[in-house]
Amino acid sequence: MGREEDLVTLLRDRLRLHEGTASRRLAGALTDLAQTGAITAGTRLPSERDLAQAVGLSRGTVAAAFNALCEEGLCERRHGSGTYVLGVPTFGGLLQGGAVLADLSTSVVPDPSHLAVPPLDAAALMRAPSGHGYDAMGDSRLRAVLAALDGGPHREILVTSGAQQGIDLAARVLLRPGDRVLVGDPAYGGALSVFRRAGAHAVPVDLAVPDAVRDALARHRPAAVYALPVDNPTGRLADLRHVAELAAAADVPLVEDRTLAPVVFDGARSPEPLALAHPHGTVTVGSLSKVLWGGLRVGWLTASEPLLARLLEAKLDADLATSAVSQRLAADLLDGDPVTPWLAELARRRDHFTAALSARLPSWTWSRPEGGLSVWARLPGADTDRFAAAAREHGVAVAPGSLFSPDGRHRDRLRLSFALPPALLDQAVAALARAWEQTGH
């Protein structure tokens, strides 16, 4: 099978996952394939006539889809040559691309300097209950500590290599190609990438509105709902108990991502775990990357016993076990209660960063985040996919809003982490202001 035949086969499969006009569905399918790497930058798309015949659409529909992709900066027409795919932002791509002055693109503890590292005994770090370290469920001491942090109903803890692996394991267990997943709008880009690679279609819904959730459950009959009580990227706190209750009534599994649940400011309390309202159908995802350090790669899952058994099986298929050394170090670090002082420092960095943004970029707007590590900023009249490239030229990495949408929306938004030290945040804002001015704003 040739390359164009492969592309047509993939497009036919993806077209059914999108809604809207035929041209919008085709544009969405092509965007999906670019974001998953199925078609790469520099790929020449089939001609409008050939593609129309292959997928059973009119030539005008294909032309409209190509035009939309060109307007969005995902493709370009080359006179006499055809339509070509340009570089498309991907969530995984935030962690690639070389050194920058300041990385505001990743919502994670930037370094472990805030931690009071206890005296370390290398031999003790390498002790594991099994001896060989392949303890599938995780280190027993760490699991006891994490059970107290989880805050949900008493359930077994499965330690994972970060929250991203936890979301991936939940997708492997709950989803099949063609399934639909209800997500917030915007939604965490890492989860959207996982669902996309699983062949599932993420359906954006305003999860804060009970009627919208109820209607979406009835209309789309999803295989799962993905929810965050502390939203990423917006930093909003949300009481989503109705989501759990409605999912339970519809017998739909719920994946609650509580990665940011401990990261709340100004005396706020984290919303209660949704597993309390949907105990038998909720997979809860947690992580230490927002309160200790992302480099530890320690997260966890909790679920009812039948679900957890399936998650454990998927975990064994994936990597057999999470690093025993990372787990024992994480348990030692948690003994020193590093979370409270870090949250106080993070709140100071949030206020410092937003003050600097207001002073240097007064046309940008945002809502003060109640939790999390990022500001969700609106840039008037900007295409943030393009602005992200301009910002990188000035030494600052940022996350464009399209990465947080199943269908490429929010192209006037940026997610900007405020977790870096204040001096570096000042340099980053100054560089963003220069990039903003250079791009004609």
Report on this structure:
The strands form four sheets. This protein has a seven-stranded mixed β-sheet, with helices on both faces. The protein has a three-stranded antiparallel β-sheet with strand order 11-14-13, covered by helices on one side. The longest helix has 22 residues. The chain contains 15 helices and 14 strands. β7, α10 and β8 form a beta-alpha-beta unit. α7 packs parallel to α8, α13 runs parallel beside α15 and α14 crosses α15. It has 441 residues and is α/β, with parallel strands linked by helices. Helices cover 41% and strands 12% of the residues.
Short characterization:
By secondary structure, the protein is of the alpha/beta class.
Helix-strand blueprint:
Layout: H1 3-15, H2 22-35, H3 48-55, H4 59-71, E1 75-78, E2 82-85, E3 102-103, H5 122-125, H6 140-150, E4 157-160, H7 162-174, E5 180-183, H8 189-197, E6 201-204, H9 210-220, E7 224-227, H10 241-249, E8 254-257, E9 282-287, E10 299-302, H11 305-318, H12 324-335, H13 339-360, E11 374-378, H14 384-393, E12 396-397, E13 399-400, E14 413-417, H15 422-438
Parallel strand pairs: 3-12, 5-6, 5-7, 7-8, 8-9
Antiparallel strand pairs: 1-2, 4-10, 9-10, 11-14, 13-14
Strand content: 5-15%
Helix and strand pattern: HHHHEEEHHEHEHEHEHEEEHHHEHEEEH
Q: How would the global form be characterised?
A: globular
Straight-line N-to-C gap = 48 Å
Residue stretches low in confidence (pLDDT < 50, at least 5 long) are: none
Total helical elements: 15
- Overall pLDDT confidence: 91
Helices and strands: which structural class? alpha/beta
Q: What does the radius of gyration come to? A: 22 Å
What proportion of the residues is helical, as a percent range?
40-55%
Q: Report on the biggest sheet.
A: 7 strands, mixed
